[in-house]
Amino acid sequence: MSDKPQSMRPPHFIVTVEGDVFGEESPENREIVRRIHACVNACTSLSTDELERGIVDDLQQTVQNIVPLLEEQRDVFEHVLGRGPHNLDRVPGLGNERRSETA
């Protein structure tokens, strides 16, 4: 047994536009191909320049920043409105204040 770390051999295959794989057939390579397809499909609306500038990381960071704010807002609405049918007249700025004042 050798103390030298074994070098990992990178996958060797070719993926066609149709998704066919030529080369070594293995579960690992199939998973890599599946991931490549998912990435390509997810990025169809993004330009190569945007991808190279890191827009995916930027979008991920933005979502991570926004989610807590949206959750907080949801909690406020649930507190004000309850979980049942919503009456927007109870939310300042969202209800029909004129109708409420004249009723």
Helix-strand blueprint:
Blueprint lengths: L12 E3 L5 E3 L3 H16 L5 H6 L1 H27 L15 H6 L1
Describe what you observe in this structure.
The protein has 103 residues and is mostly helical. The chain folds into two domains: 1-42, no CATH class; 48-103, no CATH class. The chain has helices at residues 27-42, 48-53, 55-81, 97-102; strands at 13-15, 21-23. It has a two-stranded antiparallel sheet. β1 and β2 form a beta hairpin. 0% of the residues are buried.
* Shape, principal axes of CA atoms: elongated
Order of secondary-structure elements: EEHHHH
**Roughly what fraction of the amino acids lie in strands?**
5-15%
Give the number of domains.
2
If you average the pLDDT, what whole number results?
77
Helix content: 40-55%
Structural class: mainly alpha
Count, helices: 4
Described by strand count, sense and barrel closure, the largest sheet is:
2 strands, antiparallel
Report the radius of gyration as a whole number of Å. Answer: 26 Å
How are the strands of the largest sheet arranged? Answer: 1-2
Low-pLDDT regions: 97-103
First-last Cα distance: 88 Å
Number of strands: 2
Which features would summarize this protein structure in a list?
mainly alpha; 6% strand; single chain; 103 residues; 4 helices; 2 domains
Question: What's this model, at a glance?
Answer:
The chain has 4 helices and 2 strands; from the N terminus they run ββαααα.
